[in-house]
Amino acid sequence: MLDIDNFRGIVFRAVDFGETSKILTIFTRNEGIISVMARGVKNPKSKKQNLVSVFTEADFELTKSKDFYYIKDGEIVNDNLHLRDSIIKIYIAQLFFDIMERMMLKNEKNEIVYDLLAKSISYLSLTNRYITVLNMYLIKVISILGYKPELFNCTICGNKKLNKIYFSQSVGGILCENHKNHDAIILDYYEYEYLYSILVQVYEKIDIINNRVDEKKILKILMNFIRYNVDISMPNSYKTLSRLIGIN
User: Fold this and answer.
1) CA 13, 92, 84, 77 torsion: positive or negative?
2) pTM value?
3) Can you list the domains of the chain with their CATH numbers?
4) CA-CA distance, 174 to 184, in Å (whole number)?
5) Rg (Cα) of the chain, in Å, rounded?
6) N or C of the chain: less Cβ packing under 10 Å?
């Protein structure tokens, strides 16, 4: 008899396999990213169809062979159904996973990242402030994984009293007027306050974060920061999202 492993995880990719099956990529809380064979789930009579839908969080019962896990059963924790009401939210959720996948190794366990991702998807599903949620996720996940930008003082000289504030992706944080460099982008007071707030605030306090700033500018700053410091290519999900929301 095969041993049964229990995993809480979120499906973030599903590829058809044969006539009736799918190969899933699932980010699990206790084993990181794993590949799972879901046999027979394309059959209209299958009771597992909702269980294997992309962005569904569930408690999975899996068996394991040499090459694959196989779904035996499971129970949905959160179907995140409302994500499917918005094409923009779908691409944002996919971007969550694309960034995480590029920054983590396969089977790398990180419960803090998992909890952040699960909460981010849940809030994204229910809010109209989807760019705020995306920006909060990006700055938090890079901070957890060791790429936290310096936002409390000038990255070069340590000065905390800044008359003008610049952000530099190459230096890794804010700069004062005296140390601005070739890629420094000036931030007004409200943009800086927003950047600081999305780092330190929790989703439950999202309503106190000022969304009258140019959130697309902040998103572009964060994505360029990630591309430069983590050395990854821009995911296709971000390229499509940029076209949908009007980022040049």
Assistant:
1) positive
2) 0.94
3) 4-79 (2.40.50.140), 82-245 (1.20.1440.120)
4) 8
5) 20
6) N
